[in-house]
Design brief:
By secondary structure, the protein is mostly helical. The protein folds into three domains: about 60 residues, no CATH class; about 90 residues, DNA polymerase, domain 1 (Orthogonal Bundle), CATH 1.10.150; about 180 residues, Intergrase catalytic core (hpI Integrase, Chain A). Helices cover about 50% and strands about 10% of the residues. The protein has 16 helices and eight strands. A hairpin with a 5-residue loop joins strand 1 and strand 2. Helix 2 packs antiparallel against helix 3 and helix 8 runs antiparallel to helix 10. The N and C termini lie far apart (about 90 Å).
């Protein structure tokens, strides 16, 4: 049996504390306190009045939650618990920037036409693939609003997304990479650090976060096995930490070649002369490599070498391209890059495979031979077997 909310104070008056449910935006419990009633009947009447009035107010407020309140006070705090810290920080600014278009509207009043106008506006400034990503984020936000009862429909899904555009994979050929790497002098400690960083990325296809997290204990110089089991979240020189790999398939072992083993041993020896017991492979100051250092150096070296500029991630594409040019099996490339599905590998690099239609045609040539018949089919009609065959065929 529920306790009576009406209480009697020491001075003979009555009071109560009413629990009015939870705020639809903040999720916090709503409580109101009233006191000084001469009789219990007066206190109960006020309690009932407050309960009824507040229920209506809460329902009305729930129906009128602005999209700005929903995103900032409900969605983002929840979204932060669903993704990795680095993913949240990267996407939070994108969400705030582009979702602001709807901030003045109530969440349940946003219609498909509003989303379409927003979509067209984005399409004038950004690539189709970027628009698709942002609209995907919006669709997920509306999915959450529906679950919470703040919206009845998902206008972002109702209008559909813009058409995707096949992105051309940028990479360096072996010759282009050799032009760049040849500019670096290993007698200089900093240039030696750049040399091993770019060499390792090109020869293994690791993601930059995986390479930055790589420690000497992850490399077995006897077997040549390099273990990738973590990623690095880097915010500043004083704020960085290990995080889980991108996907389960990202945890993998890569067998490195003898030349790379030799280069790593040389770098470890050079590093230990400057840094005592440094655990990170790609480090020249005792901490993991900065997310800005290598991209800037790569851009400058490309200019000096006279080759087109690429982003640091394109060294991963360059490794895949190199393996394809060597005729490696796509499944081997998939495992080496840490893709979850072969479709990802083929979808990204399939166009780099040489068109083998002409090779197939050459192989088929002469395979099937024909010896001309000496008699026509009509000459064999007297044969019982041939007659029966024709009868069945008819």
């Amino acid at each position: 049996m529920a306790k009576d909310p009406i209480k009697k104070a020491d001075n003979g008056t009555y009071y109560f504390r009413a629990n009015l449910g939870y705020h639809p935006v903040t999720g916090k419990q709503i409580q109101k306190y009233r006191s000084g009633f001469a009789t219990k009947k007066e206190a109960r009447a006020e309690y009932s009045k407050l309960i009824l009035a507040s229920a209506e107010e809460i329902a009305e407020e729930k129906e009128c939650v602005t999209f700005k309140k929903f995103i900032n006070e409900i969605y983002l705090p929840w979204y932060k618990t669903q993704v990795k810290e680095s993913t949240y920080k990267n996407r939070c600014s994108t969400i705030q920037k582009h979702f602001a278009y709807f901030y003045k509207k109530d969440t349940d009043k946003i219609e498909p036409i509003h989303v379409q106008n927003w979509q067209l506006k984005l399409a004038k400034e950004f690539s189709p693939n970027y628009v698709r990503i942002v609209q995907g984020m919006l669709a997920v936000a509306f999915d959450r609003a529906i679950v919470l009862g703040l919206a009845e429909k998902n206008p972002a899904r109702m209008i559909g997304n813009v058409k995707s555009k096949k992105v051309k994979v940028d990479f360096w050929t072996l010759e282009e990479f050799q032009k760049v790497i040849s500019l670096l002098y290993k007698g200089d400690y900093y240039e030696h650090y750049l040399f091993i960083s770019f060499w390792l990325l090109f020869m293994t296809g690791m993601r930059i976060g995986e390479a930055a997290a790589l420690q000497w204990s992850d490399i077995d110089f006897e077997t040549g096995i390099l273990s990738i089991n973590k990623n690095l979240y880097y915010k500043s020189m004083k704020e960085y930490k290990f995080v889980e790999p991108k996907t389960q398939a990202s945890v993998r072992d890569i067998v490195i070649d003898s030349d790379t083993i030799k280069e790593l041993k040389e770098w470890k020896e050079a590093q230990q002369k400057v840094l005592t017991d440094c655990e990170f492979v790609l480090s020249y100051g005792g901490i993991p490599t900065s997310k800005h250092t290598l991209p800037r150096a790569l851009e400058k070296l490309a200019e000096l070498a006279g080759v087109h500029r690429i982003k640091i991630h394109a060294l991963r594409h360059s490794h895949a391209s190199l393996l394809i040019s060597m005729g490696e099996n796509p499944l081997i490339i998939k495992e080496r890059l840490g893709h979850e599905k072969i479709q990802t590998t083929l979808g990204t690099y399939g166009h780099l495979y040489p068109n083998s239609n002409f090779d197939v045609a050459k192989k088929l040539t002469g395979l099937l031979t024909y010896t001309p018949a000496t008699h026509s089919v009509a000459d064999y009609t007297s044969n019982q077997f041939t007659a029966e065959y024709h009868k069945q065929a008819i």
